[in-house]
């Protein structure tokens, strides 16, 4: 076992020999307890990164190292114990007839003993606050509840990394809030790293670091504050910035000085009031 | 096409243990040529409501008028065919309903069923792909070789090729990326004006309801909770929260500015740049009095 991190070393990937590269010489590292958001418009290679990370795909060039292990067809089961994944469509990830069976499924695949499974089912359902639904049928749950069960199933295997690949894209606003709350609670309580692939700028502001993908390459990397302050570069590749970022820019054009790139309403309003006092 | 609902109720599986009243005594009208957003949390009855607009569901109580057509509880509907020629529905994830060998055949399927002559179908197909900004050379390709966004445009083209007067859109941008969402909404907005359509948009996006609609219906537990213009509706933040709905971000921001920081600014549809100007003035003005 090596150090706890996922590392992409000069990774290039294409789906077929005669197709263009989807990823071109991509390198980055995701460390312990980090929350990394990957953004970029459709076709920028975001989801391919997720699939490479837990061995659903393998790169033609470069290598991916999870906890010191190179991801290969031989190590893939070991890798998947460490890297769990939640997909976009809540209806496509259920196999069990009850919530309990469903959460058990991943653990069964990893051959865990029964007593441990029972304990983990309880723990992981509690973590997503769905313990009351243990005997329910998954297909009768709301979209947000389904995704919380999907997260519980991943947690049960106790991975070090969880990838959420547009896991909130098909949910209504309430479901989205549920998931983001669950995810940030879980990340604080447990020792794990999160990778969220998302279009939702609100979600991005919660991450500790952002990787911006464009045309299969890493276009920019930094904290959400860094990234959103480089608006010209984001606009250049057709990405939007959050409402507060835009508002801050216009306020600066009006001659107000703000101390930082705001990430939410609170920060912008605080700054506005400080500049009022300083006038 | 003018649309009105008179005391419409709909009960799923009546007189059974699964009986469920999805619409309860809905009365409202939609002016011809308006762009109406229907909002409400999941399970509030939005989808049941729009299935009444082209007669997929028939009310169990009450009456619906769509132009000259009437759909009435307990009366067999003889003009369903004409109604469906006039009311085009784009369902959620419409690309799941593609099935033909080529894009052209898929778009032609609807009008062919309604006996539209071949020449006219070709004309409409061309117009539809132009409106949805699909390159014409895709017409001979299989719809299943296209990207998700393109597949959705093919499905939408199929609805447009019916030349409907009323366009019903059930979350047409779900699952698209932000630039795709904006493109699709702008496209519907342009079509709405060019063709003088009556458009009914079911959406979870308060931002879209504010940006595109000129009237809003809010549903809650199968009933009409509120109706009004976007500016009217979104001023009532507390009432919206009661039914688990948010307000658009710009309004949430201004409301926080007022409540917690005493910066009073009324939203009247200003752009961000205009609001920044007013905010800057307020902040400066505020300092004069301190």
UniProtKB/TrEMBL annotation, chain A:
Keywords: ATP-binding, Cell membrane, Membrane, Nucleotide-binding, Translocase, Transport
Membrane topology category: Peripheral membrane protein
Matches recorded under SUPFAM superfamilies: P-loop containing nucleoside triphosphate hydrolases
Keyword Cell inner membrane: no
Domain of life: Bacteria
Single Gene Ontology MF annotation: ATP hydrolysis activity
Location relative to the cell: Cell membrane
Any one annotated GO CC term: ATP-binding cassette (ABC) transporter complex
Cross-referenced Pfam families: ABC_tran (PF00005)
Stretches assigned to the ABC transporter domain: 6-240
Keyword NADP attached: no
Family of this protein: Belongs to the ABC transporter superfamily.
Protein known as: Energy-coupling factor ABC transporter ATP-binding protein
Provenance organism: Halobacillus trueperi
Lineage: Bacteria, Bacillati, Bacillota, Bacilli, Bacillales
UniProtKB/TrEMBL annotation, chain B:
Presence of keyword ATP-binding: yes
InterPro entries: AAA+_ATPase, ABC_transporter-like_ATP-bd, ABC_transporter-like_CS, ABC_transpr_CbiO/EcfA_su, ECF_ABC_transporter_ATP-bd, EcfA2, P-loop_NTPase
CDD domains tied to this protein: ABC_cobalt_CbiO_domain1
Origin: domain of life: Bacteria
Major site of localization recorded for this protein: membrane
PROSITE patterns: ABC_TRANSPORTER_1, ABC_TRANSPORTER_2
Keywords (A to Z) from UniProt: ATP-binding, Cell membrane, Membrane, Nucleotide-binding, Translocase, Transport
Limits of the ABC transporter domain: 3-246
E.C. code: 7.-.-.-
Cellular-component GO terms for this entry: ATP-binding cassette (ABC) transporter complex
Transmembrane segments: none
Class in the EC hierarchy, top level: translocase
Molecular function, one GO term: ATPase-coupled transmembrane transporter activity
Subcellular location, record wording: Cell membrane
Membrane topology recorded in Swiss-Prot or TrEMBL: Peripheral membrane protein
Known function: ATP-binding (A) component of a common energy-coupling factor (ECF) ABC-transporter complex.
Complexes and interactors: Forms a stable energy-coupling factor (ECF) transporter complex composed of 2 membrane-embedded substrate-binding proteins (S component), 2 ATP-binding proteins (A component) and 2 transmembrane proteins (T component).
Family: Belongs to the ABC transporter superfamily. Energy-coupling factor EcfA family.
Name of the protein described by the UniProt record: Energy-coupling factor transporter ATP-binding protein EcfA2
Organism: Halobacillus aidingensis
């Amino acid at each position: 076992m090596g150090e706890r991190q996922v590392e992409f070393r000069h990774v290039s990937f294409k789906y077929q020999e005669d197709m263009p590269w989807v990823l071109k010489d991509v390198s980055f590292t995701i460390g312990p307890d980090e929350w990394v958001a990957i953004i970029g418009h459709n076709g920028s290679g975001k989801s391919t990164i997720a699939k490479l990370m837990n061995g659903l795909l393998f790169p033609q060039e470069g290598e991916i190292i999870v906890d010191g292990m190179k991801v290969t067809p031989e190590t893939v089961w070991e890798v998947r114990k460490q890297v769990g994944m939640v997909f976009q469509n809540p209806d496509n990830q259920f196999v069990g007839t009850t919530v309990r069976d469903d959460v058990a499924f991943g653990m069964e695949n990893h051959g865990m003993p029964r007593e441990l499974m029972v304990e983990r089912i309880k723990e992981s359902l509690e973590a997503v606050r769905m313990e009351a639904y243990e005997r329910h049928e998954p297909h009768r749950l709301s979209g947000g509840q389904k995704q919380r069960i999907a997260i519980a199933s991943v947690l049960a295997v106790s991975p070090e990394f969880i990838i959420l690949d547009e896991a909130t894209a098909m949910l209504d606003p309430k479901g989205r809030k549920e998931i983001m709350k669950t995810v940030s609670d879980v990340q604080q309580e447990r020792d794990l790293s999160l990778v969220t692939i998302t279009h939702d700028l609100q979600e991005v502001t919660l991450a500790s670091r952002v990787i911006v993908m464009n045309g299969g390459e890493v276009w920019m990397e930094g904290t959400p504050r860094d990234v959103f302050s480089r608006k010209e570069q984001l606009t250049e590749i057709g990405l939007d910035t959050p409402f507060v970022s835009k508002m801050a820019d216009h306020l600066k054009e009006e001659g107000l000085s703000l101390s930082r790139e705001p990430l939410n309403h609170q920060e912008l309003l605080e700054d506005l009031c400080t500049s009022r006092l300083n006038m | 096409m003018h649309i009105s609902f008179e005391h419409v109720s709909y009960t799923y599986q009546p007189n059974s243990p699964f009986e469920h009243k999805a619409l309860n005594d809905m009365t409202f009208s939609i002016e011809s040529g308006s762009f109406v957003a229907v909002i409400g949390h999941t399970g509030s009855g939005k989808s049941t409501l729009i299935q009444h607009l082209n007669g997929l569901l028939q009310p169990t109580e009450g009456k619906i008028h769509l132009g000259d057509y009437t759909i009435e509880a307990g009366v067999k509907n003889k003009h369903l065919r004409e109604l469906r020629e006039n009311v085009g529905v784009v369902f959620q994830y419409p690309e799941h309903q593609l099935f033909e060998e080529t894009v052209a055949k898929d778009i032609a399927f609807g009008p062919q069923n309604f006996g539209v002559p071949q020449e006219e179908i070709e004309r409409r197909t061309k117009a539809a792909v132009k409106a949805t900004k699909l390159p014409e050379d895709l017409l001979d390709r299989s719809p299943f070789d296209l990207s998700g966004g393109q597949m959705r445009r093919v499905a939408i083209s199929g609805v447009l090729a019916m030349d409907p007067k009323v366009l019903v859109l059930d979350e047409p941008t779900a699952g698209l990326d932000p630039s795709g969402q904006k493109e699709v909404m702008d496209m519907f907005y342009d079509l709405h004006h060019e063709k003088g359509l009556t458009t009914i948009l079911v959406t979870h996006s308060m931002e879209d309801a504010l940006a595109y609609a000129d009237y809003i219906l809010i549903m809650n537990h199968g009933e009409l909770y509120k109706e009004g213009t976007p500016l009217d509706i979104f001023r009532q933040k507390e009432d919206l929260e009661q039914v688990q709905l948010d307000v658009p971000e710009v309004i949430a921001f201004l409301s926080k500015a007022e409540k917690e920081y005493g910066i009073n600014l009324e939203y009247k549809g200003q752009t961000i740049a205009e609001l920044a100007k007013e905010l800057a003035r307020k902040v400066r003005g505020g300092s004069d009095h301190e």
